[in-house]
Amino acid sequence: MTGGASTAIVTITENYYLILAALLFGIGAVGLLVRRNVLVMFMCVELMLNGANLTFVTFADSLNDVGGQSVVFFTLVVAAAEVAIGLAIIVAIFRRRGGATADDLDLMKG
Amino acid sequence: MEAVIFFIFAATALVGALGVVLAKNPVHSALFLIITLVSVAIFFVLRDAPLLAAVQVIVYAGAIVVLFLFVIMLLGVDRSETLSDPLPFQRPIAILLGVFVVVEIVLLAGRTWSTGARSVRGEIGSTENNVETVARSLFTDFLWPFEITAGLLVIAVVGGVVLARRSGQRPGVSNAGKAELEQEETTS
Amino acid sequence: MDAQDILDYIWLVPAFPLFGSLVLFFFGKRIGEPLAGYFGSAMVGLSFLGSVVAFFALLDLPSEERAHVSTLFTWIPAGAFQVDVAAYVDPLAIAFLLFVTGVATLIHIYSIGYMHGDPGFARFFCFLNLFVFSMILLVVAGNFLLMFVGWEGVGLCSYLLVSFWFLRKKAALAGKKAFVTNRVGDFGFMLAMFLVVSELGTLEFGPALAGAETLAAGTATAIALLFFLGAVGKSAQIPLHVWLPDAMEGPTPVSALIHAATMVTAGVYLIARAHPFFLASGGAASTTVAWIGVATALLAGTVAIVQYDIKRVLAYSTVSQLGYMFLALGIGAYSSAVFFVICHAFYKGTLFLGAGSVIHGVEDHQDLRTMGRLRRFLPFTAVGFIVAWLAIAGMPPFSGFWAKDDVLAKAFYANDYALWIIGVAAAALTALYMTRETFLVFFGNQREEFDAAPEEPDPTESPTVDAWDPPVPTPLPHEPHESPPKMFIPILVLGSLAAVAGVLNLPFRSIEFLSDWLEPVFEGAPDLHANSFVEGALLSAVSVTVGLIGIFIGVSLYRRGLPEPGADPLPQRLGVVGRVLQHAYYFDEGIARLVDKPGRWVANWLAGPLDQGAIDGAVNGAGALVGKLAGGFRRVQTGFVRNYALVFILGTAVLLVVVALTSGAWQ
Fold first, then answer.
1. B122 and A67 in contact (C-beta within 8 Å)?
2. Do A33 and C636 lie within an 8 Å CB cutoff?
3. CATH level 2 (architecture), domain A36-99
């Protein structure tokens, strides 16, 4: 990387952002599947959401449409609500069992 | 200039993401998450969405991650997990899938993707304040979803209160109040 | 009110005994003895009166119009095919109706005396009335299906009445045997009906019988033979005759009514009614009928000469006489067959009632070897029995002579000389075995000593005697006595009818009353008459001579009865042959080995490997398969959230591929 030049080295097109968002999404997905600590799994979900948000904002900018940004707004609100409820559920479960990983919750086993 | 910022913060975002997934201590995971979120906020700014960047930092990094930390502290789930996965094939398939999804998107990203209609809901352009633009869009085109999400938040609040209550406890009775009640019953 | 209107009331004739049966079914116990008996007899008597009225009404009509159909209601309306509950009254039906109801009335009265003291008295008359109803229904039915209802009804009542004393194992088995054997014949009847429907589209007598001549010879033969199969079962011809001797387990009035006079003649009625099919079949079916008939006549006669049970002799005799009737039907002499039926009903009825009287008189002992000179103790019975004996042996001027001679002569005129010769031989046997029975019972030795105390009858023991049973030790435990008037008066009445009934159809052209009466029914039948008076007279002389020979042999052998109970000269002289005859050519054993055993094997195979193994296995297997599949699939539900999340992401990946492929951004 040459220092001091005011022109960009490469033009950052939207594709770069999309790839980055995809990477965030992918990492979040793998983390969701691999980790067993419930709270870390939750955080990975947040990662995935962020990837999606980034994609939305990228397209809003490309298409010059504010609708994309409004959608991100709603996503944020829903994520917040989801986190609140989810954590409340986790707290309730952990109170009964005194500590558990995701694998201990297998009552849905067929 | 943009490229420099992009690459720096792309790196931090990825480091943060990897940190979330790989950290042994959940508190560390939460902190790495904050790094990622702030990076994403920077990207929002780069793409002409300053309001969202601000909301992201305040709500996501400021409230949601704090909530995570509260629960981690409350429940003390900072034990580290065992290395081997009890579920068979979960790990290899998960990594495979993740790679596959990313590769897919990368391959597809080389094409022209933004074929949608332009400027349907309102231009972002720099003549108007971004806040005004977003606000106008929210209160006109997206009024109905806006009101519903308001309802959603109320539901979330109520749900949170109900779920977090200990069973058998009447609403609004503290431990001191319980002691008072018991005293009354014994004397009457 | 003209004749047609009167004939519309024909349904009253079956209604009376049906009503009687129902009343006795519900209230029989309360009505009790002997009122139940009088009531039942009265119902049948009313039927007889109704038949007489119908006869005169029919007589009123000109002979071409004597076929009255009276429909009660439509039973099966099925589009183009329809079956009504309708009566078909024609000379043939009236002829049968008259003697059926008449004989039934006499036997009902007889039964009041015979069944005296039996705990099932009311039940007996209920079944007997039900039987008369079914028989009447059979005779007056206007279509084959309704006739089949009556046909099945008489079969049912035969079962109910043969196993009337059901505590006796032999009786229960005999009833079952009668019913099942009948069923084989019924199968033929049903197949014939199906063919008639498929070929002619209707079961009503008028159209179906008229349409018979339009059928191809093969179809007509098939229908005719299938109807004949039904008749073989019902009228106990070879090979379905095995039930009739065992059916003697039933009370004697049952044997008289059902198994001599009426039910067994239903087969004859069926063939007579369905004769257009036989005529249309071009001779194949008729020849079969004639040959089976005459073979049965001969073979049954040979078995009868060595039987020891008083009723079993008469049973085989009935089988044999029925053979004559089918011989007549087979050669086309339909009115001769009907004449024979009527005369046979009279003399065989007399014989059976007489036998019942004897059994009643010696307190339920039926072994011929223990009887002798009973004419001293049962005079009236003896008179009736002797008259009937002479009739069945074919001695003029009694009815049997005219009837049998008619049949044999017609066989001769039809140039079926083989049939004639066999028929004559069977006549000789008939005379022989009846003489033997008459002399063993009423003549011969007298047992002078009698034990005063009668033994208590065991309700599970049957008094019928198999020919290979050892004789009951003499003396008879009780002094024989004559029966009450209720019993011997019907015997005498029937006996006198047996004596004079010949007048119905004397073979002289102008006074052949019965043949003339039946002529409109049997148009198309071959006209068989003597070429000259001399020919006819010669043939009669031959049959009389043959009968006399039989009587002579019988008298000479049995004039003095048996020297000692086991020493019967006839079976002794016949040796091994005699033993074969006593076992009735081992027919029952043969059926047991050929039919019963394989049948059981097949049934066991069907029940075991096929039903339980294959069918249940398939059904249960389907269930088990589903269970196993489900068990396999349910392992997808691991219960682990992370597995579910894995599947989510997997789905996402697939979705991405789909979107990529279909979006057109892919080149």
1. yes
2. no
3. Orthogonal Bundle (1.10)
